[in-house]
Specification:
The chain is mainly α and 89 residues long. Helix content is 56%, strand content 9%. It has one domain. The protein has two helices and two strands, in the order ββαα. β1 and β2 form a beta hairpin. The longest helix is centred in the middle third of the chain and has 43 residues. The mean pLDDT is 83.
Length: 89
């Protein structure tokens, strides 16, 4: 049976077969894979937070530019058009 390419680990231009690693080596590689996954998840979460931040900036800007900004009562956030979103970004 042909060895799967995903079972090869490359470090400093040297290749290692996962199946030939010690138990400790396999644990380290597994931890690195988990960390890489977590980093990707954090980047996705950061992107979502940046988008939410932009939405709040636009909402605040719209509130301040509204002629009836002094009125209290409606505390919900209105959706903004994609054109207004692009202007701020």
């Amino acid at each position: 049976m042909e060895e799967d390419k995903s079972q090869i680990i490359t470090l400093n231009d040297k290749e290692y077969k996962y199946s030939e690693l010690t138990e400790r080596g396999k644990i380290i590689i597994n931890q690195l894979n988990i960390i890489n996954y977590d980093i990707s998840e954090c980047k996705l979460q950061l992107d979502r937070h940046e988008a939410a931040k932009q939405m709040f900036i636009i909402s605040f800007k719209n509130l301040m530019e509204s002629p009836d900004k002094d009125k209290e009562g409606d505390t919900s956030l209105s959706l903004v058009s994609s054109n207004k979103m692009k202007q701020l970004i």
